Amino acid sequence: MRYSGLKILKESLTGHKGWKPAWRSPEPQAKYDIIIIGGGGHGLATAYYLAKEFKQKRIAVLEKGWVGGGNVGRNTTIIRSNYLLDGNEPFYEFSLKLWENLEQDLNFNAMISQRGILNLIHSDAQRDAFTRRGNAMILNGADAEMLSTAQIKKRYPFLNTEDARFPIKGGLAQHRGGTVRHDAVAWGYARGADLLGVDIIQNCEVTGFKVENGKCLGVDTSRGFIGANKVGCAVAGSSGRLMSKVDMRLPMESHVLQAFVSEGLKPVLPGVITFGAGHFYCSQSDKGGLVFGGDIDGYNSYAQRGNLPVVEDVCEGGMAIFPMMGRVRLLRSWGGLMDMSMDGSPIIDRTHIDGLYFNGGWCYGGFKATPASGFAYAHLLATDTPHKTATAYRFDRFEKGRMIDEKGMGAQPNLH
Amino acid sequence: MIIVHPLLGPRDSAEFTYLGDASLIDRPDWQSETAASEFYEYQYLRENPAGLHRELWFHEAGDRSWLVVTRDTTTHEITTVEMARDVARARGRSK
What we know:
The structure holds 2 protein chains of 2 kinds.
Chain A: H1 5-13, E1 31-37, H2 41-52, E2 59-62, E3 78-79, H3 89-100, H4 102-106, E4 117-121, H5 124-139, E5 145-147, H6 149-155, E6 170-174, E7 178-179, H7 182-195, E8 199-201, E9 206-212, E10 215-221, E11 224-233, H8 239-243, E12 252-264, E13 272-275, E14 280-284, E15 289-300, H9 308-321, E16 330-341, E17 347-350, E18 356-360, H10 370-383
Parallel strand pairs in A: 1-2, 1-11, 2-8, 4-13, 11-18
Antiparallel strand pairs in A: 3-7, 4-6, 5-6, 9-10, 10-11, 12-15, 12-16, 13-14, 14-15, 17-18
Helix pairs in contact in A: 2-7, 2-10, 3-10
Chain B: E1 2-5, E2 9-12, E3 17-21, H1 35-44, E4 52-58, E5 66-72, E6 78-83, H2 84-90
């Protein structure tokens, strides 16, 4: 069933009785060609591109809870491609281009809004660094513009540009960046994959892998054994827990990152603003809430909730740069699990076990990568070679000294 | 989180900074034949358990001692706090 304006009109005249579930709830088959573990954004996108771009058949997505119940429904919805390094920027720009065409591709309204993102600059050294970043973005086909303090004051008159510690000296803007309705991304990919014949199996937790003679033959699940020629993991914060079932130690730690939303306001904030020096960034949702966040709590956690010191720290950062927030009431805060890789960059690679593939280590930046991650992972699963934009995301880069230290940050919490 | 410091009693975790898995105490021997791969594993690979986790905390805003805290990563409940130097000496370090 395709969604269209005409369909809405027809349904509104007939009591909305013709809508059907957006995807099926099939029973798991005994064997698939490819099993994706994890029904989040990355797993569903992988299944979708496997079926659509790489013409693979007999694909299943196994999700231990419900589709979109993890980080794809917990992030702060920002998309951007303002990276610096060669290993990263082409990949994220590829992702942003996929975002730009995603709604037409999926026939699903994901409320993609390219309202722009601004990184604030507070010193000459930072201006040099951001100028270099902007040039790297342009060289890779992205857009970037350096804004002066006067331009920023005009566009964002509410910003505190005179903060004694962090006066605003300019900013790096990416006008094609923006926000997306994150749940709709999971739902859109789930529906798209289902229409192409992918089985999305919810409430099906993987409890182990069947490995014989160095080859993965399938997975044990809470709904029984399911065989597969290839198994791809895409479970974000639970990566360590899942891969420990095949005795793999990963170059990552799971941490908790909190996010926040205020009560609904009239439109006050055009675009996304990041105040990296103060560990704070903010955008305004279409419902009006200020959506903001900061840094990880800084200790290993699988609890999906954080602690109060970070709430205070993030709100202090917000008050320093957005004094207008002072009267706004916080509506909700929540936490998600970040698979913090040791250099802050992801892994999309084969494992030492034949037929077992891994996608993870997205740290707190996985949402914007969803389409490209799915595409590149599908490429790897279908062809056994990395996608041209994801050749650097290998397991062995730590051993070989080829880290992608975009900001020199990984799990090491004292770097935050 | 409240960390019950063995010397100072209950302290707010905000007084501490966090380093990570307590296995970081077991620094490999740099003269070993396989030092390169041992240091790779030591520096980059983690057990990252969901459950009890022994980890290093530094009392930066306090007495600047290192502690080994045993904490459940699924509930944040802290069960044991030891002085890191006692743990390291018990493992044969810094005799």
